[in-house]
Design goal:
Layout (H helix, E strand, L loop, with lengths): L1 E3 L9 E5 L12 E8 L3 E6 L3 E5 H4 L12 E4 L3 E14 L4 E8 L1 H7 L5 E12 L3 H7 L3 E4 L14 H8 L2 H8 L8
Parallel strand pairs: 6-9
Antiparallel strand pairs: 1-8, 2-3, 2-10, 3-4, 4-9, 5-6, 7-8, 7-9
Length: about 190
Amino acid sequence: MREFGHSSSGLAGSLLIAHPNLLDPNFKHTVLFIPVNNDDDGSFGLIINRPTGKKVKDFLPDQDLRDLAHVPVFIGGPVGNDQITFAAFEWKKDEDLVVCQTHLGIDEAWKLKDNETTSIRAFVGYAGWSKGQLESELDDKSWLVQRPDLDMMDLEKCSGLWQAIMKEQGPWFRLLASAPDDPSNN
């Protein structure tokens, strides 16, 4: 288990929001939580707005999952998509930040599931960037960065999170976000 939160330097603890012009199918219209960003190892993130529509029991039918059987599974990213992992997102109201524990096993996730300020999610895959790669993509304006808010914790709002964030960015982003992929099909 690794625990990460917002740091005063770097992107750890931030949301990474795909710019409307980012057309890579792995990341188009995605919102990622970035638990790890450092100069030595690069960056690690989880897409938080791509639910698979399945529960953990659908992926691990032979496991003793207890209450975790009904935890929703998200596509976490294009890397390591042959394994499922749990993450716990805890809202720290006093500090106005999200702390994320990743790489949780079933027992670790089960112990955290009843905390009312924690959202347990399961992920297939993750997003990873080598040293300096994400910073280069930020320089190219592929991503917007913002602090997480309480809405990212709401499982009911997660699939529409990208659109909601785009509406908050102003009219130009709202227009780009609602435009068809191929304007000639309009």
